[in-house]
Amino acid sequence: MNISPSDLKGKSTREILEKLIGYVVKSDKEMDEKTTRSGEQTDLNIHLCDNQGYEVGELNKWVTHLAESDHITGHAANYVAEHTFSEEIASDDIALITITTPAKDREDDFVVITSNGYLWALTTTHSDWRKKTIENLLGYLPCVERLYLSADDLEDLTKGIRDSRISGFTAKYHAPNRERNATLQFSGAERGDLEKADEAFDAKPTRIEFDQKNSPATAIQGANTNDGRLTMQSVRQGSEAKAVETLIGLTEGYQNLDQQSFNVERDPTIRLIDNGFSVAGFTAVELTDPDRDDATEEELVAEIEEKALNGNQYRYGMRDNGRKIRVFDTDHGETFDVALEPPDIILYARQTTTALSLRSFVREVYNDLDSTYSLSKVQNPVALE
Amino acid sequence: MGGLTEGERQRREVNSYNLFYSATTARATPSLAAHGVRIPMMFPILEDRTNDVRAEPDFVLYDGDTCVLVEIKSGNNISPRDINQMSGYSNVSIEIAEDELKNAQVQEKTRYDGTVTAVEPVIVYQDVDEEYIEETRTESDAFRNALDELTEYAVVMTQDYGGKLRVLTGDFNEDGDLQYLLNRDVKLPQNPPDTIMLTEGMEPEILAMGIVDIWGEQAVDHDDGIRVTRTEIRDYFAPRHNVGLEDLDFVFEFLTDFGACDRVEDQSHTYIFRRDHMDAILNVEAQIMRQSVENYVNGADQSSLNHFGS
């Protein structure tokens, strides 16, 4: 991006979005001639993250932490060794971060905005380098976790965009009992195609493209991804204000849906009271109704161990004669319980559990175990409040 | 023992508590919580010494009107002790219930202001159903008499995993909303949460599991680890769950041997749980399901010797 901290100084989020949307503005001629959305064109990407402690100005501290901490796997240390980082502060909650890759003589930058427990990373860097530099950094920062939506929520979010239609999507099917791993790429979609993919293949969308009109012509083209990324691909000259509105609406909608799925508002803290105990509340995330009729507890445990709990992030122990797994998420320093109701999987929040570990585990399940689960969070108070 | 280890038997007992607990959560249908039912107290003592009344329910349910005192039994045997307990519950007056609710953070100016219009004793047997009640009532005079006596004091209910919490026999004193809900059956989850890790007897196995659940796991949050003394643990469970200091010494011998915590040098009966104990902490239950704490600490040979001797 050709942007300097002074461009960001004293600017509101809205003004910054407007400036960055400038990178994807197209003339009428360019819009009308455009036949394909892929290729080498520049996109604006916004990564939406749950922020549990990153403050603008602290990049150095975190980079040092990644380099030194023995909790972190070798990948993070290697990553930090291969890049240099600079953070130029524009205001209390806005900064420009540049990641340099000396071996390739590259600089990739992004704007970071923190507000209300969220961190946004905005960039026009192309996908290969975006993944190597920016998305890796977001992935390694322990206090930052990219938001995540189930397929149903992603669909609801995208369908809620005013004057828009779904113009393409990526849908995936992945389930252990079928030993099949299929990806459906659909461009030029028409009404009902997303539903057909679901009905015919049980394929769940992970990315949905949309075309939005600004009467009468298509003015805005964008895409929403299930792993916390919004993309603006092109904005017709004159429709910049509408694009800013769309983006702001999408960020709010995305954050709300993520919160509804993962936030632990009712924690099961046990308190000693004058006369006995009380339990404050209850929260569970239910993964239900997958594309399989049955599974034994043993099968499901083996699949969860192999596909979701593998790797350095987790330590775990079996409970209740194999009917529950107590999981310790070492990345986030939290525990939670996985209870088996084959083929359903229930996550019970414990005292230390927050959205960070629940979201992270659910992402493992959808990506590596079974993409066909439906998700719902249930919660309630238990003690008097 | 029917082939169950000590740990497995105690697991069944805590599971009965947690299954009942799950009726108040949003995973039950209907969820009692959604109808305003709360659990202000677990394992309280309700008493009125001047009138010699004492009740020790496992759960107290409260919706702003009715106070349900619940006793959970993991088996199916109606013992004279059960009848005695329910007789005690039935003596709990509205005034006693109101007094004790005041200790449980009742909220003035809300529906949970501590007002009680009815007290309802309930006893829940895990391994009983309508058929069992019908058959045994016909076959055994003793059972019929015990059941009749029990229902003078309490409503008898049962519950099942993935099944229903439901009334088997007996009538509630009043007909409020909460009584209506309980009479209408509550569908329970198949696999309830591990919220309560206590048993009536607080045997070494459940004590070890409870200690690592309550104190051990806090290590994930603390860089310097979590320290706890045996008297702190005793006081935490008292007065309802009488845990002896010698029992705690025994359990900590197991936990330190197993690598779930360390003894703090220079401080008597003080233990520390750190993050590097987490692997062992997470495996305490699996170990306990296989072998009793006694056998682990004293060696399995000890019990087989006793076995030969008997």
Q: What are its keywords?
A:
heterodimer; A: 385 residues; alpha+beta; six-stranded antiparallel sheet; 11 helices; B: 310 residues; three-stranded antiparallel sheet; 12 helices
Chain pair with largest interface: A-B, 44 and 53 residues
By secondary-structure content and strand pairing, the structural class of chain B works out as alpha+beta
Mean pLDDT across residues of chain B: 93
Question: How many β-strand stretches of chain A?
Answer: 20
| β-strand number of chain B | 12
The largest pleated sheet of chain A is described as:
12 strands, mixed
> How confident is the prediction overall: mean pLDDT of chain A?
93
- Please state roughly what percent of the residues of chain A sit in beta strands, choosing from under 5%, 5-15%, 15-25%, 25-35%, 35-45% or over 45%: 35-45%
Query: Structural class of the helix and strand makeup of chain A?
Result: alpha+beta
Cα end-to-end separation of chain B: 16 Å
Helix content of chain A: 25-40%
Distance between the ends of chain A: 51 Å
Number of helical stretches of at least 4 residues of chain B = 12
Strand order of the largest sheet of chain B: 1-4-5-6-7-8-9
Number of helices of chain A: 11
Overall 3D form of chain A: globular
- Biggest sheet of chain B: strands, sense, closure? 7 strands, mixed
Q: What ranges of chain B have pLDDT less than 50 throughout 5 or more consecutive residues? A: 304-310
Order of helices and strands of chain B: HEEEEEHHEHHEEHEHEHHEEHHH
Structure characterization notes:
- The complex is a heterodimer of chains A (385) and B (310).
- Chain A has 11 helices and 20 strands.
- Chain A is 31% helix and 37% strand.
- Chain A is globular, with a radius of gyration of 22 Å.
- In chain A, strands 1, 2, 3, 4, 5, 6, 7, 8, 9, 10, 11 and 12 form a 12-stranded mixed β-sheet that branches.
- Chain A has 385 residues and is α+β, with helices and mostly antiparallel strands.
- Chain B has a 7-stranded mixed β-sheet, sandwiched between helices. A 3-stranded antiparallel β-sheet of chain B has the order 10-12-11.
- Classes of the chains: A alpha+beta (385), B alpha+beta (310).
- The interface between A and B is large, with 44 and 53 residues.
